Structure formats: structure tokens, C-alpha cells
Amino acid sequence: QVQLVESGGGLVQPGGSLRLSCAASGSIVRLYTMGWYRQAPGKQRELVATVTSGDNINYADVVKGRFAISRDHAKNTVSLQMNSLKPEDTAVYYCNAQRSTLSREYNYWGQGTQVTVSS
């Protein structure tokens, strides 16, 4: 089991910045791919960024150059620095931990944190 707790959401004006953090606890977190997903009203949940156990990073095209994901293996945390925010970035952001073995898929979610970009 992995428990995920997000923090750092809020209201920001267009062009502003926010930093989201996710604290993970549980078994062998270091083996998981950690990431951020988001879900806007009326839309499906979508990938924002992920970082693997080996620190390989992947971004959704819509956030490349504006968002940066980072991972602290010692503290079991993953953060998302969001710059140049746009109204279309408004969504509930979810921390995710996932791992695959030969016999099982593991997939855990945080409770979500609201990010609202509005003037």
C-alpha cells in the first residue's frame, strides 16, 4: 500500500506560478513511477507529468516548458512547479504512484488538490 497526500493548490492569476507537493508513504515507494494527473470539470483525467524510479521524466505536450516535476527519493516526495499558468490549467490535480510487476499492477491516487487560474 502507498498513501499519497497532496498540498499546494489554490487560486492564482494567469501568468502566475504554483508549486504542488505530494508526500508518499508506504512500502517501497522508491520503486514506483510517481506523477501528476489533472481533471477539469466535464473532462477526463489526463496525464500532466511523471518521473520514474530512475528519474526519467515525461510531460504532456500542453505543459512542456511551463511545468517541472521533481522527485526527492530520500523524502519520498514529488513536486510539480507550475509556471506561466493559464486558465485552461484549472483542474483538480492528483498525485499518482504506479508500478508493474509480472503478476500485478499497482496504482494509487491522492485525494486531489484544486488549482484555479483566474483573474
Structure summarized in a few sentences:
This protein is mostly beta strands and 119 residues long. The chain is built from no helices and eleven strands. Strands 2, 4, 5, 6, 9, 10 and 11 form a seven-stranded mixed beta sheet that branches. A four-stranded antiparallel beta sheet has the order 1-3-8-7, with no helix packed on it.
Topology:
Layout: E1 2-7, E2 10-12, E3 18-26, E4 33-39, E5 46-51, E6 57-59, E7 67-72, E8 77-82, E9 91-100, E10 105-109, E11 113-117
Parallel strand pairs: 2-11
Antiparallel strand pairs: 1-3, 3-8, 4-5, 4-9, 5-6, 7-8, 9-10, 9-11
Entry keywords:
119 residues, mainly beta, four-stranded antiparallel β-sheet, globular
Task: Outline the structure in words.
It is a single chain. The protein is an all-beta fold and 119 residues long. Helices cover 0% and strands 55% of the residues. Strands 2, 4, 5, 6, 9, 10 and 11 form a 7-stranded mixed β-sheet that branches. The radius of gyration is 14 Å and the shape is globular. The model has no long low-confidence stretch (mean pLDDT 95).
Q: Which spans have pLDDT < 50 for at least 5 consecutive residues?
A: none
Largest sheet: 7 strands, mixed
**Count of DSSP helices?**
0
The first-to-last residue Cα distance is 40 Å
What is the residue-mean pLDDT, rounded to a whole number?
Answer: 95
Report helical residue fraction: under 10%
Name the beta content range.
over 45%
General form: globular
Global Rg: 14 Å
Structural class: mainly beta
